[in-house]
């Protein structure tokens, strides 16, 4: 069992391991919330390779490797790198859209019943 320190080395070893024995290769993903780490493991029962990270930056690379291995295991051609990034773009745009709408609505309009800078006093017994 070998832990790779470099993502490039792990990626090339993972694709080579799968290419050597595609029918026997298994792919495992472990997330450890307590340590905030992600462990990727590929094995063909003879050789096992692992990669451990705590970096959020690796998640994009992991998603690309996951798409590549999933396509290879399904017998489809591997997706283009731009296609994987394009899948993330609508989600990012959708997340940013409500924020943009909030800013536009707050510029000239006020919510009904909202006072312009005045606080309401509570009515009740003194």
Structural description of this entry:
The protein is of the alpha+beta class and 126 residues long. The protein has a domain of 80 residues: Signal recognition particle alu RNA binding heterodimer, srp9/1. A four-stranded mixed sheet has the order 1-4-3-2, covered by helices on one side. Strand 3 and strand 4 form a beta hairpin. The chain is elongated, with a radius of gyration of 25 Å. It starts with a strand and ends in an 18-residue tail after the last helix. About 21% of the residues have low confidence.
Summed up:
The protein has 126 residues and is an alpha+beta fold. The chain has helices at 7-20, 58-74, 81-108, and strands at 2-4, 26-32, 37-43, 48-53. The protein has a domain at 2-81: 2-Layer Sandwich (Signal recognition particle alu RNA binding heterodimer, srp9/1).
Question: What topology does this entry show?
Answer:
Elements: E1 2-4, H1 7-20, E2 26-32, E3 37-43, E4 48-53, H2 58-74, H3 81-108
Parallel strand pairs: 1-4
Antiparallel strand pairs: 2-3, 3-4
Pfam families: SRP9-21 (PF05486)
GO biological process, one term: SRP-dependent cotranslational protein targeting to membrane
GO molecular function: 7S RNA binding
What is the highest CATH level, the class of the domain at 2-81? Answer: Alpha Beta
Largest sheet: 4 strands, mixed
Strand segment tally: 4
Strand line-up of the largest beta sheet = 1-4-3-2
* The CATH homology group name of the domain at 2-81: Signal recognition particle alu RNA binding heterodimer, srp9/1
Can you count the helices?
3
Instruction: For the record, give the distance between the C-alpha atoms at the N and C termini, rounded to a whole number.
Output: 74 Å
Tell me, rounded to a whole number, the average pLDDT: 75
What CATH calls the topology of the domain at 2-81 is: Signal recognition particle alu RNA binding heterodimer, srp9/1
Helix-strand makeup class: alpha+beta
Shape annotation: elongated
> From the alpha-carbon coordinates, what is the Rg to the nearest angstrom?
25 Å
Question: What is the string of helix and strand elements?
Answer: EHEEEHH
């Amino acid at each position: 069992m070998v832990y790779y320190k470099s993502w490039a080395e792990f990626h090339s070893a993972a694709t080579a391991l799968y290419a050597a024995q595609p029918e026997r290769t298994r792919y495992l993903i472990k997330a450890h919330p307590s340590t905030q780490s992600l462990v990727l493991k590929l094995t063909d029962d003879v050789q096992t390779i692992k990669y451990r990270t705590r970096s959020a930056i690796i998640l994009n690379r992991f998603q690309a490797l996951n798409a590549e291995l999933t396509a290879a295991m399904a017998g489809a051609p591997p997706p283009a790198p731009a296609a994987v990034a394009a899948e993330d773009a609508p989600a990012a745009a959708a997340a940013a859209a409500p924020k943009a709408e909030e800013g536009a609505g707050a510029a000239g309009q006020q919510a009904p019943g909202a006072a312009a800078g005045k606080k309401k006093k509570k009515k009740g017994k003194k």
